[in-house]
Amino acid sequence: TIVTLNRGPVNALTPQFLMAFNDLLNQLAADDTVRSVVLASPFKVFSAGLDLKEAQGFDIAAQNAIVEGLNVAFTTLFAFPKPTIVATQGAAIAGGLFFVLASDCRVASSRASFGLAEVRVGADFPVGPLEIARAMLNPNDLRRLMLSGQPIRADAAMAAGIVDVIVEDDEVMPRALSVARDFATIPPQTYASVKRQTRGAVVDLITDAMAAGGNTPEGGWFNTETKAAMAAMIG
Questions:
Q1: Who's near 152: CB < 8 A, 6+ residues apart?
Q2: What is the dihedral of CA 25, 87, 137, 30, to 10 degrees?
């Protein structure tokens, strides 16, 4: 099954978009005819994360809603019991990078870029994305990406293990589909079991943190610097 992220022009993340993605994943998980899933985007940017212009107007309720969306949707993707292959031909930045980090195999165009820009827009990481990044990145790449906020190109992402395959633009979807078909031949119960073995402790940590209030940080997600930093980022 191909899931196309289709919130143009840059797949900006909203609570509604994230929760709809979460609901779709749950439907696909329950559908025995689905053996693997490819995540794709029709846009030049795979996903740019939050809409910073819109986010500057978030009150505490809106901040908590986006935190919950980020936590729930990306934890569901990370724990999804079937193979997930992401096909990215453009930038996956900030929250948008977690479509990549939470997937099982990552096929990228040579012009794609990847980054975690949160520190530059005055926001820290909700528990779900934070723990997924810790699980998927080695400490030095975590340091570089999170503390600089600067993106890296596809070749550097491959060296960091963020990307598994680099091809030219017109080869991204054919390669992703080929990979997905190969993954689909793996016995599905065994795949789900092994994935739980390798990711279950992280999923449990996130789930426990959400139950303890991780979706509703005290005082909201933003700090006193956030809205000014967002405004400066977009100019």
A1: 113, 114, 115, 144, 145, 160
A2: 20
Write out the two tokens for 171.
């080869």
C-alpha dihedral (164, 173, 177, 198), degrees to nearest 10: 30
Separation CA 2–CA 39 (nearest Å): 6
Q: In the predicted model, what is the mean pLDDT of residues 86-113?
A: 98
The phi and psi torsions of 138 (rounded to 5 degrees) equal: -75, 160
What does the DSSP assignment read for 164-176? SEEE-GGGHHHHH
The neighbour count for residue 47, using CB atoms within 10 Å, is 27
- Look up residue 229 and give its amino acid: A
DSSP 95-161: GGGHHHHTSSEEEEETT-EEE--GGGGT----HHHHHHHHHHS-HHHHHHHHHH---EEHHHHHHTT
Output the six-digit token pair for 173: 């979807």
Amino acid code (one letter) for 214: G
Structure token digits, residue 211: 């139950």
What is the radius of gyration, based on Cα positions, of the chain?
17
pLDDT level of residue 210 (50, 70, 90 thresholds): very high
Rounded CA-CA distance 226/120 in Å is 9
- The pLDDT of residue 235: 83
Contact call for residues 160 and 133 (beta carbons, < 8 A): no
